Amino acid sequence: MRQKEVAALLGLSQSAVSKYTTGARGYVLRVDEIEEAKPIIAEIVAMLANGSAERIRVLEKFCEVCMLVRRKGLMCQFCEKMDPLLKIGKCDYCLVDDR
Fold first, then answer.
1. Mind listing the pLDDT tens digit for each residue in 22-53?
2. Which of 7, 8, 11, 72 has the fewest CB atoms within 10 Å, measured from its CB?
């Protein structure tokens, strides 16, 4: 898909999509390299590409990926930047589901 099409699907500007894909904006967390996330991401892409994306289903799939990222401890690097005094090995904030 062209960036303009992706932007329209996601409600972003083409410029924002370009900056995200090149890494010029935001931090790139390579969730596509997590084996367990690949089928979920493929499902999201398919829903968006074929026009069958219901907002709630896409959000549910995004949440699945987010939970996977949290369980794997991939958010720890962000937390550490926000609070250098945080003891990463002793933190279980991302693992608690009742927030």
1. 878 766 677 888 899 999 999 998 998 888 87
2. 11
